[in-house]
Amino acid sequence: MKFFGLILLILFTSCQTIHAESYKISDPSELITLKNLNPGDEIIISSGIYDSKKMHLNATGTESKPILLKAERAGAVIFTGESTLLLNGSFIVVRDLHFKDPKPIQSKSPIEMRTNDSKLQNCVISGVNTKEDDSTDNKWVSIYGQRNTIEYCSFIDKKNIGCLLVVWMESGIIPQHKITNNYFSRPTTLLESDGSKKNGQECIRIGTSDFSLNRAECLVANNTFYRCDAEIEAISNKSCFNKFSNNLFLESQGALTLRHGNNSLVEGNFFIGNNREGTAGIRVIGDHQILKNNYFENIRGSNYQSAICLIQGVVNSPLNRYFQVKDCRVEGNIIKNCYNGIVISYGSSEDQSLPVISTEITQNTIYNDNQSNYSIVWIDTPQTPDVTFKNNTIYGGKTKNFDSKLSPQTTIRPSIIDVSNIWLAIKSNSGAEWFKK
User: Fold this and answer.
1) ∠ CA 169-216-425, rounded to 5°
2) Which neighbouring-strand residues pair with 390?
3) Domains recognised in the chain with CATH numbers
4) Gyration radius of the chain over CA positions
5) Which of 424, 343, 332 is nearest to 376 (CA)?
6) How confident is the chain (437 residues) per 10-residue block, as mean pLDDT?
7) CA distances from 140 to 97, 98, 354, 364, 405 (A)
8) Beta strand 352-354 with 313-314: parallel, antiparallel or unpaired?
9) Which residues, at least 6 apart from 371, have a Cβ–Cβ distance to it below 8 Å?
10) Can you give the pTM of this predicted structure?
């Protein structure tokens, strides 16, 4: 009997362990009072509009039983004004929230994740009805910790200075975050007095110049960037060993910029300009960067906003300037009807004097129906021996300061398949599902 009773006790205890609680709250500021959450518990916020709520959730779930914070109904929980959500802990999932027209607070993010192994899913931050503000600098989403995921979210029209989403580097930590299947749009552009675009209006920034030689190992994949025009960089990579794959840049004047750091991979992305003025592709700084199998069509920018721009470096460059492009690979890319195809060794500052070196440009197809387009522009001497060209196909267009013997043009029109079904699928599968309806 004692043995049988012990078995019953074990079974009862096991049932208690796997039981998850569900909490429904009508005041989101009550999150801070939930002290004894267990793995698998869920918190449901009642539908409604909540103004200037300060929310803080500190919880620890497990991989199989995360803590879930969600809206009662997707998109029906709306935060306005100075509302903020701070997350601490691990294995937390936040889902279906809407931050509408947030009022910018200096150096304060509407969503701040100081977590590990947590997710932000199917959420929206939209500033369409806010006023332009060039004095208040904040970020919409700040990510710390390790292995967090931002997926199926929409970030629309931030009208004050500061990135939409930032990965913050920390000493001794390799972030390894994933930013996937999201939708970004930033058409509003804040200008300097001379008409140039103000710095600090990126959509995504991974790292900062002072941490730029550290490994981040983040993945940015399957996202859509539509009319991200606010500055020259739609994405600003400022760390090492990141991967950017299968993203769509649609009619965007901001480039995917490997601004600082080394050893990153840009593969299988789509840059569709639709002949919109100033649309851009990829800008490269640093060493051991790989640009592989990307597709560019009707990009109309030049120089820094070319389809591919490999820039000049600065002698003894400090961390916040321009390191020389070296030991890079530009391989298997298709560049179709772009105003500037590949631009080599471009620089806009007098102290940029180091040309691109030890770089391979191989198996690319540059196709132009328009003879006023430039297939290749080489700013410094084309005799630089460390830049090699192999097995490229160049059809139509013209070149500048380029020895055609390095990569002869062909008179045979190459066959380029229609890829619109691929990039349209990326677009349809990015962003918060409820926001698209």
Assistant:
1) 115
2) 362
3) 40-436 (2.160.20.10)
4) 24
5) 343
6) 47 54 95 94 98 97 98 98 98 98 97 98 98 97 98 98 98 98 98 95 98 98 98 98 98 98 98 98 98 98 97 96 97 98 94 94 97 93 78 96 90 95 98 91
7) 14, 12, 36, 38, 50
8) antiparallel
9) 396, 397, 398
10) 0.94
